[in-house]
Here is the input.
Amino acid sequence: MHSNAVTGVTSKIADFDLDNDQINLEPPGFAAYNSEPPPAPKLKSAGIVSLDITEQFVNAAKQLELGELVKDPHFTLFESVGALEIMDPKMDSGYLQAGETMEDDYDFSQLLLPEEIIGIIDQLLSHEMAWHMGHPLAQTIFTSLYIDRILDPCPISLEQTYFDKSESCEDEPLMHQVLRAYCLGLLKTCGYVNQRVKSEHYYEEEDFVTHTFHRSLLENIDHELIIELLEETIERSQGCIGLRLGFRASFLEIVEAADSRTSLEQVKTMWTDFQLLLPGLKSTTKLGKPAPTSFSAKIQRKLASTVPPRPIVQVSQEAAFDQLERLCRDGAVAVEVLKYYDSHSLMTFVSLFQARKPQPSVYIRTLLQHYIFGDMIMLGNMSIRQVLDDDLSTTVLPASQLLDRANDEVEFPNDPRFKMAERMELFRSRAAGSFLDILRTICQNRCRIRRTLCHTIADWDILQLDAEELDMQLREFTKETPVRDREISDEPIYSFSLSSWAYFYKLRQMEWIVQMGFELEVYQPDELATMYYYLQYLAKTRSRHLERIKGFNFRGFNAIRNKKTAGDASHDEYTKALTFVNFSTMEAAATYGLADSLSCLFTVLDRLSLIKPPPRPYSSDQMRYELRLKPFLLIGLPELIPFTDLTNAVSQPSESTLSLLKYAAEAAMAAKRGFEVLSKLSAQEAFCQGSHDSWIKNVKDCLKACIFTGISIATVKKAVEGMDKNGSKELKIRVEIPKTGKGYHDWWVVPKIIPVS
Amino acid sequence: MSSPSISNSSSAEPQSKEAALPPEVQYIQYSHTLEKQYLPSIRALISKDLSEPYSIYVYRFFLYQWGDLCFMALNPTTTPPSLLGVIISKLEPHNSALPSSPTPTTQRGYIAMLAVSAASRNHGIATALVQKTIEEMRDRGADEVVLETEEGNGGAMRLYERLGFLRSKKLSRYYLNGNSAYRLVLFLRGVEDMGRDGQV
Here is the structure.
């Protein structure tokens, strides 16, 4: 069952203000022993008169047949999934098995051995990491009886956190103090993490469970007091216990400091230093003695939840340390996003960071969002306008008067500069959200990236049209002189800079939608030829579009090159924009080369029946085409390739198999050369400043995919030629399609050709 | 998420070649009068693969409203005929959350549950149940049929893909056990014709 429904309902029920005394006074499972219905709960709501309708209800219910359903139209599947059956042990949270007690009977005054303390602490660390992985607190950290003891009732001072309520500072046994200090540090750490996740864009339950079941994560207790307690306890401890307390203090300090957007180096060092503590911890877990009786699934009955206790989540120590190590590594990298170079490098940084395998955990992903967008200030010190203008300048508007800040100062409404400022502001207000959403979207989990792009792509189509309108208005004020080129058109050709920019990003996102489909294994093997064809179509369209942008940038550049007055700044801006356009063109060329090659190769494999389509009696090619291209059906530009054209373009019936293979080999070779050139670019030239290493690795993985494609093509060619030569009807090869993560690059599904004897 | 979902067909596909089936499996359409006789075994069969059971209301939600989209596979050689497999679905107008969707409103069939008893698998019972459902939905004007299935459930995925379904999206950590799912979709009409003459 999908879990969202139950928790949703749970929290609704928990908020319902009923008279508690009346409900909870009854012994558990009363219905089984008591034929008299309990008195109706008293609703405490002003202006409402309550009336007991039990009798009428029972009488009405008797008129119904068993299984008959009476519902209003608003009672949906969601509601029915949230319904519970009383006295079903898997649904009724109050149902007790014979001899089972409602609560645990645990002696908090019992003394604990140091090895038991280590056992409990290490178990808590596993639970903490399980929570980071996406499990609810109720099935992880909150299953600890010691944690429950601290949180219930909600403490507002350290004095209220003793396990043995008769204890005080003076007589608390050292081991109790150790555990208490650790637990307080742990809860406070979780408090910061939870707060961070909740403040950003994430998907509850799908990514992470921030639900605290109406418990406080020590929001009322001062950070410093907990750190002091930890430090004081560290002084009294030694060996692996001291190590664990130190670890906890560092973890707490990091999550508190990590939010800062002004101390990049410090935060980075904190993560790397923190990571150095892990091996010591890891190597001493074996000294711990598990204390399973100090954890209980039953505590869930005390939490604000209507579902019966679910099993305690078990995450191995090894998996927990893996998660924690990645957290440190990713945390140290994420903070580097604060070093801003240019908008394109920023985009590259985020997309490569999010493509790390496994994907960085939710906490780190939300930290990254906070670094980028926190308080609507980009990277802690830039306005959204700065980043957007920077992007426009390095793509379509280098050294443009449209981006001149001095325009804002002009107060005379008839001045063209006033009009430019006004129109540009209109554009920014329209485009900034969509632009930032690209960044925000690539911060989500991999499935959501594709789903969200499929939804938002239509907005970009409209944005492009809106921008076109503004482009036409603006050229009145900029006095743009059009290009006249009879070879292209009889009409004057204008730059349409803003809509060009929108089109560029629309194409990029359409490419990503197709590419993410490969990564997420959305396509069946016999769809690959078509999907790679579509990818090459989109990349080729981008490349042509960039040619157009390049033409206008060159024209502007030539115009100022000879003027001394223009100054160095505009010269640099033109160079930068030309470099970017050049780079993106090369990248598009490598992409369409390899996509073209793979499309042909898959077409050949289809022809040779090495990939067999399923029978699909209820579907047609045309309907599957519409389903597959649904996100693009209503996109105006680039035009959707019509079904028959696409089918012909992919299957290429007039080409022989060998000539298809020849073409595929050439395209792979060209792509290989393209990726090789890309791999030699500097960080500035490739607009990957701040993530050059990951970028190079990514390009090299594409390069490997290219080489491997060439090998597969050659193997198929040999087999086909062999068949022709021997007049045999048997191809002595078979095909394996690698699973995602098993090939060289998840966006390049290269079929493995295996000879069979 | 617009509506909560129900885990699908974790037991649809064969795992073992077991005891021979009766020569003829009997497929019957559910109706409310059969509730007393079959609902307990339907629940038992479906719950087997669920970590947490559905309440009776979930079954009634579907069966009371769309009983004719529920089919049972029965063994006629036992008395009373025992349940070998079952499929439960619904069919409703679906409004796209996106104003710009190419299919703003469709008659959407949704296969909610499919189960076949372990001993009867690998005999095409699940496929037959899905086919009967698709045909019934088509007769009642469905534009599309959708469902979710666990990403690791290769058997179910193959079953649906053989019939013509495509994966339209992947849903991260969709199930309570943390596993992801694929949304599988089958268009029964062209986009142009969708939402035109669907019966409600």
Observations:
- The longest helix of chain B spans residues 125-139.
- Residues 171 and 181 of chain B are 5 Å apart (CA to CA).
- The beta strands of chain B are 26-29, 71-75, 82-95, 105-116, 144-150, 166-171, 181-187.
